[in-house]
Amino acid sequence: MGYPHSSHERETPVLSKYFGDPDARTLAGWRARGGYTSLDKALGMDPVEIQNIVKDSGLRGRGGAGFPTGIKWSFMKPDGKTHYLCCNADESEPGTFKDREIMRWTPHALVEGVAIGAHAIYAETAYIYIRGEYSEPIRLMQAAVAEAYASGILGANAMGSGKRVDVHVHRGAGAYICGEETALMNSLEGRRGNPRIKPPFPAVAGLFGQPTTINNVETLAAVPHILREGAEWYQGLGREDNPRSRGTKLFSVCGNIARPGNYEVTMGFPFGEFLNDLCGGALPGREIKAVIPGGSSVPILTREEAENTLMDYEGMVASGTMLGSGGVIVFDDRQDMVKQIARLARFYAHESCAQCSQCREGTAWTTRILERISAGQGNARDFDTLLSIADNMSGKTICVLSDSCATPVVSGLKKFRAEFEAKLGPDHSRGVVPVLLTSNRTVAA
Amino acid sequence: MSDAKDVKMISVTIEGRTTSVPDGTTIIEAAKTVGVLIPHYCYHPGLPIAGVCRMCLVDVEKFPKLAPACATTVMEGQVVHVHNEKAREARKGVLEFLLINHPLDCPVCDQSGECELQDYTFQEGRAESRYEEPKRFNPVEDFGGDVMYVPNRCILCTRCVRFMDDVAHDPVLNVSERGDRAFIGKAEGHDLTHAWAGNVVDLCPVGALISKDFLNKARAWELDRSASICTGCSQGCNVTVETRDNTVVRLKPRSNTDVNHFYLCEQGRLDYRWINRRDRLDQPQVRVQGTLRSVDWEDALDAAAAALAGRRVTVLASPNSTNESLFLAERIIARQGGAGVFRVSIGGEAPLEGVADLSLRAERAANATGARLLGYRDASEGLASSSADDTLLVLDDVLEGALDERIAALLAGAAHVVHIGTTLPDVIAARVDVALPITNHTEEEGTFTNLRGRVQRFLQARTAPGLARPSWFVLSDLAERLGAGTGAYSAADVFASLAGHHASFAGLSYATLALRGLPVVDAEAHGLTVQMATV
User: To probe the interface with B, which of A439, A440, A442 has the most B CB atoms within 10 Å?
Assistant: First the structure.
């Protein structure tokens, strides 16, 4: 973890090695820790060479989708067009705060990773799109970029290589959906942050209509380490029986747990040990009831399921959930799962961009039913309706926000049905309903 | 665009029917070629693709998920199912979602009867609602111009937003707020005052954007509809005249990609009340001993023929007269000698920026081009000399307004004045010898020629007042009496005769014009075509 507690001996601090070390924030401090040697090396390499090293390392997207980074970069060909790299630092997934720490403690690690990434995809311009609420990380990233420009690391002649690398820090205005890559591009362009229809994919027509690659903060921050230590070193991190998930992964742990915070472990780490030893297990006198392992959009696990899960892309899928962003949310036996799931649904209803019918209406409808059940006015029909709405909301929209709202509902209803049933009141199907979503709209008289 | 022969053709099977369409065609358009309508809301052929309503999801074999037919281009050998269970269930889900916050106020909604939400729900939606929660509420808002916004009925398809952004180039509309609180917002301090803004009402698939002019006037199913042409300017936009109990209550654009695409301007759309005017000339009248008296048609036609016989004739024609009646009057001029002139009022241009060569034209008349092609001169370019022995034949020119000195002199100096018109203005009534009532363009059949030389038919939409007869019928009878007849028994006959006499119209007929029209054969030679920017 590195901050505020020192790392656990079972952790493998690569990205988090300097968390809590203020000296690592400055350019001088970062250089003293071996910083920018990878960029220096990379700028002298052919982009394809870098792509191949990243491919060989087995690095996959850390934002949630897990797409192999080297392959994503290899979609970008030297076609004479202007290319862009976007670093997705929107980190809007509830329960996730790993990118925040990378930017807070090692901003130069990200600047270095972004610059290498830009060169690897034949781009001269990169944008770091940071969630608007992240005031401190934004300030630190801006300072790091300014330092990098002042010392010639960025600019028209990056590190004296003769190559141009420009990095811009962009502050988002606070929308969950702007973490979706195409919405992020719209937002960067100054448009409403609505996801775009794919195709065209960003590698063909992305930011400003140009070929674009979008990578998560954690993904890009890992690249300098891979270039410095070698693909084989990174390949060597992870459980032996799963060649598809390699390297380390940061997990943000929050909720009803003894030691919340960020933990960096190798892929395939046992989730039971992670929760009970690294994170200290449940709070005194309590018991863990449920865990959301990868940010609020992934299916919920019961404690038993979680303890038998391995923390990598495939391990999570084997347990019926997803690695996602690595945002671990822990619920103990005090928590009312109906209320928690209703709260998640309300979040998605609030954040739906309103484009697709299923998402706009479905997230709000789901929320109203869940809040009604939570208020003790549910009826037996509601469960079927919720599952049917969830089905109608899944796999049918431009982006996956709609699916993300349906996921906790479906897994929650499956795994904690007794809690839902205990909430049912007398049949109030046409009675007074205390829950009303109203418009925020004001109309001039 | 490349030549048609260069385009690769793609073979697809939609609902079991195989078709071949150019590469790049979307599934929704390919389906139209085999007669399959894929239900949709946000898609519109005149607007950029949004892909947001998710109503057009279809099941494409070998695709893992349902695909939006509006945003998916065809691929060789693709097999598409529109009406299988998977696709139908998805649409049923969308319909249910669209209805949960939609008020069930169809009985008082103007869109009822021509509402796509109503139609598709009836066709394949749920019979009962599962929604037990309160509905979201937003107040009605006046969007300015002719447009009223009822947000509770809105399904956020964004057609209106895309029209104002990408077609009108006047981006005053937007989607405001998020989630189900979203609504169509209007830029602060701006109204839908663009000359073409009223099209958002037509584009709206539900009753969210409604016309203030048409508000509560009629139910859609009470209306009779006829194909017609707008007479507001020389663009010649194709319209549908909608009447209730023989009264025109609304004009709607009729799609014609060669003229107005899907659109109609505010001027054309809202200027229809004159069609219903009650103070019509509805009986033939002849001046007897200084007083105009109503007589029967035969006597009136005889009197008109007598006033014209053996004299040169000056025809003062309205530029809204049909090609047919202008042709027949021209036949009389050819027989008797004389000349034809017309006066056309001029206004400001108002182009629709996103569509090539579509504008509210300065020339505010439907058939000035037809008049020119048939040998009439614009009065502003000078009148033909006339003498006191001439007869003035007024063909529905109202003479009111800017009655310049030359026309006043013409009126005062003519030996006789014969008026063939829909009304009898005072200034003519005082001087006229014979007045013959004719129908206006919604009461008869005929053709106009637009500024690009496109000849377009219009059909009868309402019955004639009193004894009024179609203009071609009256002029045909009169020409017959003067020995200038064409032996025509219908508007189509008159047009056939016109096509035989005038090289510009050679080969055209009512059958070939159909309802989309055709350009005159020598439009280029007359300088009527535009050099379209290559797209």
Answer: A439
